[in-house]
Amino acid sequence: MSLGSTGSRVDRPIGVFDSGVGGLSVLNALRDTLPHERFVYFADTAHAPYGERGDPHVIDRTRDVTRYLVQAHRVKALVVACNTATAAAVHLVRTEHAALPVIGIEPALKPAVAASRTGRVGVLATRGTLGSSKFRALHASLAGQVEFVLQPCDGLAAAIEANDTAAIAALCRDYMGALGTFGTAPGEIDTVVLGCTHYPFVTDVLRADAPPSVRFVETGEPVARQTRQLLATAGQLRASGPGHVGVWTSGAADALDAAATRWLREPAAAARRADVPLHLTA
Fold this sequence. Notes:
globular, 10 strands, disordered N terminus, Rossmann fold, 2 domains, alpha/beta, six-stranded parallel β-sheet, four-stranded parallel β-sheet
């Protein structure tokens, strides 16, 4: 029996979904902010990486995984902890599950504007995120406030998934180098947006190619605060009792187990595999 299949709605879990292990960075922030909640984390690793796939694939998988979390786990809210899935499909999920609080994620461009003193901000993200209409609209809405340098990071999410330290180091060095000059002088980059949920796990590697003054900005904490606010407004906060995390994947359970052990600040239940068939919408 899945978590939340019995009992009141307050005791149902919150679903957290990503194409792979990157959303574990968001889950850390959620657990810090909502320590009494139960969570079901789903990594769609059999169909990853989303950031290097087209929108039709991402839309189909996002809808399929949402249906799975609603039907199998009866989640009371859904956090789409993937920039690419949010950009491509969160509007469809909200329409199809109107009664479900759905929290998406987007690169932290607005916080970066507030943080930057030099007026130049680097953005590291997947090609799918940078090419999305949602990102382009966000980018355009901030035109003239700072200059953004956009850098697609092909292969970096996959290297993090595989924990390939050599590839991670090489890719981080290449992509940080491609951004340009870092520093505190006008026109130099003083703030870097981590525009994929995988990237916070390699912040230390990225920092090795920048001066200590450079600030790295991610979105886990704002997402956690928004989730808490929505649940509080709906009267659905779980205010007491132990928290819990169930971890599920469409890929290899042992690989997700290893990632959860490596990156979650608190332990989770052993990962399990769940078959979520692909239902093409086209």
